[in-house]
Amino acid sequence: MSESSFKEMKFDRLFEQISPEEISDNVFTLGFAVITAGKKDHYNSMIGSGGGFGLLFKKPTTWSLLKADRYTLEMIQEEQTYTLSYFPNECRGQALFLGNESGRDSEKMKEVELTSVQTPSGDMSFKKARLIIECELTEITTPNPSDFFSQEAKDYISEAYKEPSDFRKLVFGEITHVWVKK
Ligand SMILES: Cc1cc2nc3c(=O)[nH]c(=O)nc-3n(C[C@H](O)[C@H](O)[C@H](O)COP(=O)(O)O)c2cc1C
Question: What's the per-residue H, E or C state across 18-61?
C-alpha cells in the first residue's frame, strides 16, 4: 500500500477492538507510550515511559508518571480522557519527536511526521500505532516524599522535587477501549 493511501485510511479500516483482558503484550517489554489528550481541533502528545496496567477499584486501569509541567497533563485534566499509543519498532523514531519539546511553546503537533487519527469516541491517536489504549481519567495524585521508603526512591524524589513544576504526578485512567492494528 502506498503511503498516501495509508494516510487516507479511516480508523475502522486500520484498527479492531479487543478487550483489556485480550492485551497480549508484556508490559515490561512494551516500551514507551505516546500519551495524547485533546480532540481533533486541539490535541497534544508526549512520550511517557514510566507506568503500567492493572486493576484499580476492580477496573482495568493504566497508570503513568508525569512531571507536573507537562502540557499533555494539563490537557488530560481538562478533557479527562486520553490515549496511550504504542508503535512498531520502525515508527518509534518518528514518535520520539513528541518527547523533544513541549507543545505549550512549539508547533510539534503540526511538525510530527505521524498522521493523526480520531477514535470513534473522539480521542486522538496515530495511524501507525499498533496498540491504542483509551482511558478515562480516574485519579491524579502527587506522591509525597514521605511516602517513599527505599533509599533509591527517596533519592529520586528528593532530587526530583526541587520546584513545584518538577513534582511527579501519578495519573490513573480507567481503560475504556483497546484497539489493535488489523
Ligand atoms: C524516551 C522518553 C521517555 C519519557 N518519559 C517520560 C515520562 O514517563 N514522564 C514524563 O513526564 N515525561 C517523560 N518524557 C518527557 C516528555 O515526553 C517531554 O518532556 C515532552 O516534550 C512533554 O511534552 P508536553 O509538555 O507537550 O506534554 C520522556 C521523554 C522521552 C524521550
Answer: ECHHHCCCCCCCCCCEEEEEEECCEEEEEEECCEEEEEECCEEE
CATH at 103? 2.30.110.10
Rounded to two decimals, the pTM is 0.96
As a whole number of angstroms, the distance between CA 139 and CA 111 comes to 31
Q: How far does the centroid of ligand 1 lie from the alpha carbon of residue 101, in Å?
A: 8
Q: Which residues line ligand 1 at a C-beta cut-off of 6 Å? A: 32, 44, 46-50, 65-67, 70-72, 96, 99-104
Residue among 54, 136, 52, 69 at smallest CA distance from 104: 69
Of 3-12, 46-55, 60-69, where does mean pLDDT reach its minimum?
A: 3-12
- Which ligand 1 atom lies nearest to the CA of residue 100? 21
Model pLDDT for residues 155-165, shown as the tens digit of each residue = 988 888 888 88
Number of domains in the chain: 1
- Tell me the three state secondary structure of residue 106: coil
SS3 (DSSP) at 49: coil
The per-residue pLDDT for 5 is 86
